[in-house]
Amino acid sequence: MRLLTHNMLSCNIKGVTKGFPLSIEVQKLDTKETDFNPDFLRNIIPKLEWKAFHDAAVSVGLNDIPEQVDPVMLEYTEFLQKFHHALLEVHLEEGALICPETGRRFPVTKGVPNMLLLEDEV
Amino acid sequence: MADGRRTSLIRSFSSMPHQRKALHRQTSSPALGLKGHVAAALHAHVDGKTGSELQVEVDESSLCHYAVVDSPRRRIANINLVARHPEVYEPCDDSFALVDALLADKVHLLERQPSLCLEVGCGSGYVITSLALLMGEGSGAQYIATDISSVAAEVTRTTLRSHGVEADVVVTNLVTGLEKRLAGSVDLLVFNPPYVPTPEEEVGVEGITAAWAGGDRGRTVIDRMLAIVDSLMSSKGLFYLLTLTANNPGEICQIMKKKGFASRIVVQRSTEEESLHVLKFWREDVRDISDNGNHSTFSHSFSSKFSRLAFWR
């Protein structure tokens, strides 16, 4: 699971108001090189919750993502490359995502988060 | 293929898709065994020959006949690279019809430049992989695929990897866990639902049953999806939905019309008894610009028939 995916997920248990961002529990990380596509990065920025992305990057050991993003940064290749790496190349292979409100743990297995809810959570 | 050539697999004639899903419903093991046999036979024949065209005939059960033809410019998933698992629905007529619909609308899709594409119920990964391939690497789009089955999610990941395509795969019920963050931003939504009419209690159960069991009129899961489409879709969003006649596609279009969506049939695939429709929906206040004859970009299989008519008229 890439941090991009993490940024799109929230806890939807009945009664939870925001359920975002889910904190990341890391058991195993993997890095997979992927093609650098600046257009994709520029497209995706407006859709990201940047603070959540920043915090997620820190939780997987990446400390070079700025706390705030400025459109000017998109002109700098160095920034785009770090952004690219954190967003798309680092994969949480094993671990969990944890709801900030309920503490509910959503397992991540073989790189896939499992967001299925139990009957009494719907 | 043994010689590494890219080939396409086209069902030259076939059982009806609902029967394929229904077949699973009746007795999954023998059906899967047969499908496995078909696949094995196919590989054996292909491996033994280098010709550009060959036929593989299935024995007395005669579920379907396959033809393998070269397609060097292929831009959808290669059926031979699609991962398989006994608990995961293999690509069949319904999957092919959906991909045909996307191919038929390819020019339109490229023009719209979707930045977020979502497939619900990705199963083998054939459709999301095909979508990502046909949109091309430079599209700058994000692809998300969900499935209620963790095995399907794994199979989809394998299929994606085999084709060198990236997508985010999430195990969930429809879009649970994604709906808040994706609200209003899905530009392309694709759904091949469990559409076979079944007893209600079979819907969403564990294993491959979830891939076909659609409850009353096959509409239970479809209707759950219809209820959330409006909140997910962006202003330029397109929604491709596969349905069976038994699902009452006309009524589905009426339901969507009330939510402000226009619709059309992109692909209609008829067999003797039944027919599949791939319906396409878009927000009525956004003009549909697909009517530019781009269907000719795909030399679709002969059993397909396109209809541009709204069938409720």
TrEMBL record, chain A:
It comes from the Eukaryota. Gene3D superfamilies: 2.20.25.10. InterPro entries: Trm112, Trm112-like. Belongs to the TRM112 family. Interacts with TRM9. This is Multifunctional methyltransferase subunit TRM112-like protein.
UniProtKB/TrEMBL annotation, chain B:
CDD domains: AdoMet_MTases. Gene3D superfamilies: Vaccinia Virus protein VP39. GO terms for cellular component: nucleus. It is found in: Nucleus. Keywords: Methyltransferase, Nucleus, S-adenosyl-L-methionine, Transferase. It comes from the Eukaryota. GO terms for biological process: methylation. Belongs to the eukaryotic/archaeal PrmC-related family. PANTHER family: METHYLTRANSFERASE N6AMT1. This is Methyltransferase small domain-containing protein. The lineage of its organism: Eukaryota, Viridiplantae, Streptophyta, Embryophyta, Marchantiophyta.
